[in-house]
Amino acid sequence: MTTLHIDPGVTAEEKERLANVGYGAEGERAGTCVVVNQDVRHIGVNDEKVEILPLKDALLRYDWVQDLMFGLVDPDANAHVREAAESRHAPVGHFVRIRAGAKVQLPVQLFTLLEMPQGRQFHHNVTLIEKDAEVEMISGSAVPKTVHSGHHISLSETYLREGAICRSVSIEQWGAGMEVHSYARSHVGKGARSTDSKVQMSPIKHHYAESRMIIEEGGMSSDQSVIFAPAGTQRIMESEIHLKGGGAHSESLTRMVSAGGSISNKALLVGEAKATKGFLGCNGLKLTEQGEILSVPSLLARSSEAQLSHEASIGMISQEKLAYLMSSGMSEDAARDLIIQGFLTLKDELLPEIVREEVKKMIAAANSGSL
Asked: Rounded CA gap, 157 and 241, in Å?
């Protein structure tokens, strides 16, 4: 007997909520996936070279998907991953496939909503960008204003095959009392290119983010992150980038602002092959005496031809810059906001145009304390 799957779609209220983290009209997207609580609520595809399925369905349709799932992460890596690997329930999450050679003209958008107060959410997502394919991806996470507390855990595995190109943006708006644990694993194949921008501005009780990336011969990765921690927020980030193949390149830039919250950023860059080149930029800005920023960039060269460098700084707002702006007629608050916004501004060329304005609005809201 065939089971009929009824897609209830996304409500107008949910669309409005997701618009703040990059959601756009589906006619302007190559594909859309929205996961609500523990269900893949909606999938829509407008490009035949884009395939989106609930992960549990992808495992049944393609036997090779099981080789991708837990292909980049040890099932026994930690308690959260182990719990997912040993679960008797079908996995919840999406499988995204961009077919070989595809030049996807419109972005693919992927969103997560937690609508249950004090809810617990666990997602496992797998993305495969096949050989010579090119795509832009927008992902976001959000909760309604009525959800103050809850726990979200996510595990994502992303594969860029030889010559693939992926430009991605992720924006997160969680509840002030929430806990979030995210584990991201990526494999950038020979000659592939990955460009990623992350925006984490809203208050949150505790967020632990762990990422690991392997870059093969001639591959390239460029990522930038904007991190904001108001009072009561704790953010812990641990990342590793392994330049495994000859000629692999990477650049990783992190901008952190503490307005009374705590930020810990530990980044490791490993040069494992000839002619590899990488850079870590970790810069912080403290706005008050409360809170703290820990920035630890680390370099490990296993090849004598690896060229690795880093830059790290933490400071307060420059009184000289503040005085200069105020001398032009600005109020102190407006001058401080302008300095903070300039510090947090992402490289526009790495952001899809369609989400630039939303990111600017989030930065302005964070500066004013209205998030």
From this structure: 15
